[in-house]
Amino acid sequence: METQNSKTFPYLVGLAALLVAGSAAFYSVYGLSKLFAGAALAVVIMAGSLEFAKLVTASFLYRYWTKINGFMKTYLLVGTITLVGITSAGIFGFLSNAYQGATVEFEKQSTKLIYKEDRLEQLEEDKVYLKSELEQSVALLPDNYITARRKLREDYNPKILNLNEQILDIKEDIGDLKTVLIETGVDVGPAIYLARTFKTDIDTVVKFFIFILIFVFDPMAVVLVIAYNIAMVHRAEHHTPPENTEPKKRKKWWKLYGEDKPLFEKLVKETIEPDITEKKLDKVIEETKVIKETPTVPQDRGIHYPVVENKNK
Fold first, then answer.
1. In this structure, are residues 118 and 82 in contact, taking their beta carbons and an 8 Å threshold?
2. Nearest Cα to 149, choosing from 165, 131, 135?
């Protein structure tokens, strides 16, 4: 006899299959509706019906694999695998859309930061170039050309000061952008940490995890549906209902109408005088039954037997 755990386990498998398949279908339909935003409602209806048909087809293939022809078997198998690929593509679209929505501000600030850092590097190179040019120009003048040397320094100093001011402003902007990136990067903090750990960019890390999810998500839903069918078939084959050893007691016909005794006995008791005791009443009922059950002698129907008549004479 099956234990309580073995009875409930197939239903746990069915619940897991329902949750995984339902969530996979939702994410896939949502992702496909975003991909074909011009006809979102039509895509939702089409993709939803295909998701339901995919699960039913997987169950049908398991239950009737040996009872269908080769062409139908091949077509349904290829169709199911194709629908798994479509569902995975829809899930990829949903997850990538969610990632882009969470990182759009982060990417915007990151682009600004990259531009500011490049600009800072260029200004620092210009500053170094101006200083080297000034030193070379001063070195070419004779030592007694003091006024010329002063004139060169007066010409280059404003340019160098201007570069210093720009460098300071850009450094301040870079500091502000890094603060904003810390605030907006909370949602993608794990991705940033992993990207730094593996020394790669965030997009590569996110794509890697999305591919892992889609390779497991919908195939797991289909396999769980087949596992549920296996569990239910196995339960039906090995489940034996308990036999009822005690014979079923049928109620007598008069008890079906709420009577305690047969109608005949009841009528006899009602017609007998009330002063008769219970024993006499039962005796009268028994005698009445005997009289009722005594066979009657058939009457003379006009048939005469000569031998009998002669004896009588």
1. no
2. 135
Distances (CA, A) of 160 to 116, 153, 264: 19, 10, 131
**Mean per-residue pLDDT of the chain:** 75
* pTM of structure: 0.54
pLDDT along the chain (313 residues), means of 10: 65 88 88 83 89 91 89 92 90 83 73 85 84 78 74 79 86 82 67 76 82 87 89 76 54 54 54 51 57 50 48 47
Q: Locate 49 and state its tokens.
A: 């019906």
* Residue 6 phi, psi dihedral angles, 5° rounding: -70, -25
The CA distance from 288 to 211, in Å, is 94
159/130 Cα distance (integer angstroms): 8
pLDDT in tens, 117-166: 888 888 888 888 888 887 777 777 777 777 777 777 777 788 888 888 88
Q: What is the DSSP string of 219-268?
A: HHHHHHHHHHHHHHHHHHHH--PPP--SPPPPPPTTGGGT-SS-HHHHHH
Choose among 89, 65, 90, 91: nearest CA to 77.
65
CA gap 120, 187 in Å, rounded: 29
The domains of the chain are located at 4-238, 252-294
224: nearest Cα among 13, 74, 80: 13
* Nearest-angstrom CA–CA distance, 132 and 140: 12
Instruction: Judge whether 120 and 167 are in contact, CB under 8 Å.
Output: yes
Note whether 148 and 140 are within 8 A (CB).
no
**Structure token pair of residue 196:** 């730094």
Residue that the structure tokens 């196995």 belong to = 234
φ, ψ dihedrals at 87, nearest 5°: -60, -40
- Rounded Cα distance between 107 and 185, Å, is 9
